[in-house]
Sequence to fold (331 residues):
Amino acid sequence: MIPRPGPQGRVIVTGSVAFDYLMRFPGRFVEHLMPDRLERLSVSFLVDEMRRVPGGCAPNIAYGLALLGERPLLFATAGHDAAAYREALAAAGVDVSGLALQSDLFTASFFVSTDHDHNQIASFYTGAMARARELSLAGLGDGAASLAVVSPNDPAAMQKYAGECRRIGLPFLYDPSQQVARLSGEELLAGARGARVVIVNDYELGIIVQKTGRSREELEAEMPVLVATHGAEGSTISVAASGSRSRHAIPPARLEREALDPTGVGDAYRAGLVRGMRLGLPWEVSGRMGSVAAAFGLESPGPQPPSYAIADFRARYERNFGPEPLLSRLG
Fold:
């Protein structure tokens, strides 16, 4: 039985704060890639739509948690151009007292093109995120938190926060996701060491396997809880239990409107999962909460869906997975 972070204290969410430039390509990327020419790749995609929206892994997760009744602490760095963004997050119920604005830098920026199949090609400008390594979780005070989320961020900051969590005994969720390409195998293993939960998608898990030289089974055996998301196929939660493992196959929630953009959907899933953990719900219920939150996110034109009522969330859960009395804990 893996102990859960209790409702006492708050969730600290670390990670990137960014503005997302979301572009849509009307075709399929794979139709324009030549497998025998990939070593000299030079390709341009003419997009027919672009939007600039506030995003970043940490605000996306924190915003999702706020929708579900948490008041998470956003612990991150952003540029001088993020003042209005900070105010909007505060109005949504996020504690932004831990968001440090850098007067001499712009906020990090995420440039992503999405094709007809929801495949994405992206680039990321670091900006003020590079100074996240200057913040310290150790300064928050004893008992201030019951869980930290270490999501994609400045690589040095990610390693620092994971190390601080281990040192002060703060349970943490390790989410390297987009940074698996940047982190070495040794850094990935070091970041995951001692984590209560490790979460990545299928593709990212394959990169970790390649970089570490460990099999999926070997990695799984070292982690108390390993969550792998599979896009439209749902997710899998593998939990260590009494010398063995229990595995929960979590189906996706059905869409009720058009799928608009996958950006931030993984962050929405993490918010639902973490909220379930905080309420002490079974892993399969927490995972299904992640699926429902992800569906709301996929139907949104940006990484943070319009505000929804907890009653609407519960109703959608039950339309997908049937009655769940434990959801009364949501309020």
Observations:
- The chain has nine helices and 13 strands.
- The two ends are 26 Å apart (CA to CA).
